Amino acid sequence: MIKSIYLDYNATVPILNEVKKTLLDCMDLGPINASSVHFYGREGKNILQIARSNIANLINTKSENIIFTSSATEAINLILGSFQNIVVSSIEHLAVLNSSKTDLLIPVDINGIVDLDYLEQLLKKISKDKKQILISVMWVNNETGVIQPIKDVINISKKYGCFVHCDAAQALGKIKIDFDELGADFLTISGHKIGAPSGIGALVYNNNFNLLPQILGGGQENGMRAGTENILGIIGFGEAARIISELPEITHSKVKFLRDYISNKIITLRPETVFLGDKVERVSNTILIALPNTPGDLALMKLDLANFSVSSGSACSSGKISKSHVVTAMGYDQLASNSIRISFPPNDFILETERLITIQELDRLAECWSNI
Length: 372
Prior knowledge:
alpha/beta; globular; Aspartate Aminotransferase, domain 2; four-stranded antiparallel β-sheet; 13% strand; 13 strands; 2 domains; Aspartate Aminotransferase, domain 1
């Protein structure tokens, strides 16, 4: 049986080998519950603190600013559930759009960049009447890979006394994150985007706002998130963060070469292909493409039959293809059901630890795309 070639790293990164070893070692330690006061409880507390410190080192903040959750989605709900007045970009992840329940949307241009002038005019208008406004803008878009001008968003928001949340799930491991220098109030991240297990995320905050806990119970995580901590998920997240933070720097030259190679090959073989967000700064591992008059589910099926595991830019939790709100917001409504995302490993280190995709395989991928 031919193994499928995995090119859906924005969805999840396979668990790193060193993380797997750490998980197995942790399972051999015994029945660990960090809320207990005996030996095994102390072991659990130590694991939590080491993981918190590793993640804090990766994003440059204090370990006490980190709250563990089951996912970035839960962390987002914890933040947004504490605000009534929320402004979000029109291209946010559904975790933000569905939990914010707001109609105050910042539009984006044809490249998928948020309209900073619109944001300023909106805040100038509403900041006089509303208290405790939260602005939520993602750092890197999960479909296009476009990097948002997050520092400009923060500067404008702070001018009008607003709190700022940044969804950094797709930025972690791809670009340098310095939370303390950034100036945001809240950051949300996810473990499985950098080679940790699924089911673990974190909220990073600066302690200047009292959030309303969504899950009540035993008072774990400083009373912000009750429930026995997911020790395996947390130790895995911490180990993946340690590995990346100890790299001399996060490099992307090899990943970018693969992205540019397949892009050029596709343009040559199927020139009517539309590349979305490729005219502005974006992370090196992501391509979002579409063919006019070719539904995304058809393209996805053809590529899957050719043993390429990619994703639709508009896939929902049921696995069905829906219209991409991101592509629609960029002004390509007729392509909103056609987009296909190809995503390579987030950086050169993870690329080198995975099975390397060959140029011959990329050629075959481009040929398959050209024949759809």
